[in-house]
Prior knowledge:
Elements: H1 2-13, E1 19-23, H2 26-33, E2 39-42, E3 47-52, H3 56-63, E4 68-72, H4 78-89, E5 93-96, H5 101-108, E6 114-116, H6 118-126, H7 130-153, H8 160-173, E7 178-179, E8 184-187, E9 207-213, E10 215-217, E11 220-221, E12 224-230, H9 233-236, H10 238-254, H11 261-274, E13 286-288, E14 295-299, E15 311-315, E16 318-321, E17 325-328, E18 331-335, E19 340-341
Parallel strand pairs: 1-5, 3-4, 5-6
Antiparallel strand pairs: 1-2, 2-3, 7-10, 8-9, 9-12, 10-11, 13-14, 15-18, 16-17, 18-19
Helix pairs in contact: 7-8, 10-11
Amino acid sequence: MMVRRRDILINKLELQEGSCIILTDSSNLLYFAGVGVGCLIIDCDEATLILPKLEEEEVKAKVGSTLSLEVYGPEDRLMDRVVRILSEVKPSTIFFDKLSVRDYEAMGKITSNLRECMDTIWEMRMKKDSYEMKLIARAAEIARRTMDKVSSILEPGISEWELAVEAEYIMRKMGAESVAFQTIVASSSSSSKPHAKPSYRRIEENDIVVIDLGAVYESYRSDMTRTFLLGDFKHKYSYLLEAVHKAKNEALNLLRPGMLAREIDKAARKILVDLGYGEYFIHGLGHGVGLDIHEPPYLSPIYEKPIPEDCVVTIEPGIYIPGMVGVRDEDMYVVGEEVQSLTSFNYLE
């Protein structure tokens, strides 16, 4: 699988003899090498992973004979080793994903023809194959089942911190290798902060609680959010959740391959604008999910590309009234001939 992906990248970049690709981003390394450490050098004949000696045994077990390995010790620096290797080869063109200013300048002394290739890589990574879909679906299922369990212990007296810890413990017990991001539990006025961190505040009888969580399963991630209204708040703020659900449904009516991402955002945003909440919808409508928690395509006013088939995206409209209250509802969807939800039912069945 990794060999095939590397061959596709070589073809898309029209890599010539005497040129090479260097990949340093951990997610790109996972995608093209199967491990997320080191630096991968790809040319027309072979792929070589440069990595620290301390990772050698584990990496060998994972990649087998699909890659050549070159290790370095604690006295060396990864990119210094890469520069020395390339200085000997003297490639005419170097394609790269991400480089620091220092490393870019060092590469520039080898060749003046440096070409960033992240757009091509994203073109590949956005479209998930069947194997990736299974892993994302499992990560999403862990998140959905965790949200169900956490909602059952959500009651007055428990703290935001306790809820977050319980959520992360449940995800790990279900097979998650880690959490996809720091779990968000935001109650009362903190709910108006989209990325609020859990505090020791205890949930009250009449309260609002936003929970945003995700799992990592074999390097692939999930992301979902629910807003819970407790006690009298079920009536006090239900109109805000209804508005968010209307915007979400409008987006789902338009979500399909080839549709401009910004047009989907625009349609959902218009629903909230017409209802008087436009100024309180302060982020994009959604984003892609895969090896990274936020990746293209982005459903936002400034992302001008169409939605590709076989990508996985979130739809997550929200309303945030500063210092008062916030609501958000988020699910993950597979974009195809039919849009399939990953977090509102058991996709694996």
